[in-house]
Design a protein that fits this description.
Blueprint: E1 6-8, H1 19-22, E2 27-29, E3 39-40, E4 43-44, H2 48-55, H3 57-61, E5 65-69, H4 71-82, E6 87-91, H5 109-119, H6 126-134, H7 148-160, E7 174-179, H8 187-197, E8 200-204, H9 218-227
Parallel strand pairs: 1-2, 1-5, 5-6, 6-7, 7-8
Antiparallel strand pairs: 3-4
Helix pairs in contact: 2-4, 5-7
Amino acid sequence: MADKWLVFGGWGMDAGLLRPLFGDSSIYVDVNPLMPSLLNGATLRPDWGCIVEREYAREFKATGRIAGWSTGAIVACSLAKRVRTSKMVLLSATPSFCRREGFRFGWKPGVLVAMRERLAVPHNTVLGDFVAAAGLPPDYAGRAVYSADTLIAGLVFLEQACLLNIASTVSCPSFVLHGNRDEIVPHQAGAALARSMGAQFRLVDGGHAFFAGWGRGKIDRLLDDSLRGRYVL
C-alpha cells in the first residue's frame, strides 16, 4: 500500500508478517513484548489502552493510519479510540477473544488457561498448533523468539481484554476484513465488531491468516470495493 501505516501484529508472530500488505514505509509493532507491561500480576490493567497510547504516540504521529491483525487488531482498535486517525484496517478482529454475556462468538476462558499451562512445559507445541490453525506454513513456529512468560502474558491479555463497551466510540473510517474459514476467531466476531463501530466489513476466502501470500495492492482493491458499497454488512 502507498500509505504509511502503524501496523500491530498478532500473538506469537512477528509483525513483519504483514509487511507484504502494508509496504516497507509503514511502521510495524510486535505486540508480544508489550503484553507483560499491560498486566498487573495476572490481571489486565484497567488503563492498558492508555499505556498503548503512551508507548506508540511517536510512531502514530509519523503515520496517521492504524492497522492490526488478531491480537494486534484489539490493540489497534483501542488506540483508535484515543487518537484521531484518518483510517483503520482490522484483520481477523474481534471485540472479545472469549465469550461474555451478550457475546457468544468467542472461546471459553478454559481454552486459554489450558494453553498457558502447556506453555509452561518445555518443548510444547502450543505455537506450532496456533500456526497450523491460522493457516500459516509450519516454519513460522520456528521463527518465534519469545519466552514462555511473554506468550503467557499475551494469553492473559486475550482472556481479559474486551472492546464490547468501547468499540462504538471509534469514529474514524474503519474496515474489517475476515476469513470465512477462520478457526481461531469466528468471522461472526469480526462482523459484530464492524457493526458496533459502524465499520465496513468484508468476508474473504481463507483462515485466520487469510492474507498469507497476498501482495501489495490487494487490500487497496478490497477497500476500494467496500467504499463503493459492494461489501458492507
